[in-house]
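Database export, one record per block. Field names are fixed; values are copied verbatim from the stored entry.
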Amino acid sequence: MTSQAAAHNRRKFLQFLAASPLCNALSGFELAQASGQTVSSPADAIDIFDLQATAQQNIPPAHWGYLATGVNDDSTLRANRVAFEKYYMRTRRMIDVSNVDTSVEILGQRWPTPIVLAPVGSQRAFHPDGEIASALAAKSRNHLQVLSTVTSTAIEDVTAAREAPLWFQLYTMGGWQGVRARLRRAEATGCPVVVFTVDLSGGTDSRHSLQRAVKSDTRDCAVCHDGTGIAARPKPMVVGGDGSNERAHLTWDFLDQLKQETTMQVYVKGIVTAEDAERCVQHGVDGIIVSNHGGRGDDSGRGAIDSLAEVAPAVRGRVPLLMDSGIRRGNDIFKALALGADAVMIGRSYIWGLGAFGQPGVEQALQILTDELRVAMQSFGTATIADITGERIGVA
């Protein structure tokens, strides 16, 4: 059997497995238990999945369910991983890769890798140090960090720990009053970019794996949450609105008004089609992030890497293009860059490090992915990130 035929058969098997009743009978919460081995120190982690297994051992069941869940039967969460299998690298030989350069430029600043820490809310649910530990790891390894609206630590404190400006991810609860308050606070910290997230307009009531995990948790959840599951303690970046937890209707008119309301650049996160990418450019956005919220945003059943393959040709380099959802390996990063992403964002991957070991765990997650990316670049004959072009990837 040729390698191409083997790759095709593997992809078909994974697609069959993902669609099978046996796999669908398992939630993302349960599937997460099958990966990796627990380790006693960050240095012992061979790959990201060892940090995943260790984090699950440490994090309370309901909080783990919140982190692990997708939507409904988690089909999109699974698709994010399965979709990577259809793409393969076209390796070039006889190229000097003795000095691989993994650095990229984002907004005129040089970063050592294309790996960005994606916004993940409520990080103190996974480790007492929460976003501060992530910021210190980002500072230690010099990575760009994006802070969530539902952060458990205020942007002022996280920026102080990072000792550099963050990007700020925006949700719209509290109406325009709340939005404006958050924009002003982000601007005051020197934040250059607001990441407007548009892929949760349908709410989060269909996260079945989370609901099952909550039922398995023997702790008294009322200590921290009210009857609806909302944190009783106000999130520091959600205060200052009209008191409503409802999010504004997300429309193109809203985007236009948002651009008028802030001095920050506006990136739109959650774009998955060429049509919406083109419309983003027409509305003057400063950047686009292809994302399905790690399988938590909708039940499309489509992997984000496939969305990137559609969106990148529509963007045609007119604005920066980032991608998240499902990245777990250095090869995944390579594939995303080859398909047109300028950088990638990771979420669960570094949070597993946080849950496992706090700041050292986040640092180890970033180290693992950077090392794997460097090995991929050497293996496939690309000495710089700019060398990772569309000719380096194929579809099985």
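Remark 1: Residues 359-380 form the longest helix (22 residues).
Remark 2: The chain is about 40% helix and 10% strand.
End of record.
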